[in-house]
Specification:
- The structure is a single chain.
- The protein is α/β, with parallel strands linked by helices.
- Strand 2, helix 2 and strand 3 form a beta-alpha-beta unit.
């Protein structure tokens, strides 16, 4: 049976990946870092985005993937937040649900 994505009863925070380094980093990441039940472990963006300035946006993020598909394939990610341009939402949502 496939997992439902429901939180487990463990005391570990839920691992979150954000697709989209613009709005995702500037608006979502600071809020998620205030919630102890969630831990943003990676952010994905398209090639060519300045990764160094993106990494500096968070003190707690441990991993930075270059592509959204790498983030989606990461088995440690429990929740994927899609904060990329709307034209990419369908592709990333289908991939994340597969």
């Amino acid at each position: 049976m496939a997992e439902t994505g429901a939180p487990s009863n463990s005391n570990q925070p839920i691992s979150v990946g954000i697709i989209g380094a613009g709005y995702g980093l500037s608006s979502l990441l600071p809020v998620l870092e205030l919630i102890p039940d969630y831990k943003v472990v990676c952010v994905a963006t398209k090639p060519g985005v300045n990764e160094n300035s993106s990494i500096e946006a968070s003190q707690s993020r441990e991993v930075f993937f270059t592509t959204p598909k790498d983030l989606i394939r990461n088995s440690e990610i429990e929740v994927v937040i899609i904060a990329s341009p709307p034209s990419t939402h369908e592709e990333y949502a289908i991939a994340a649900l597969a």
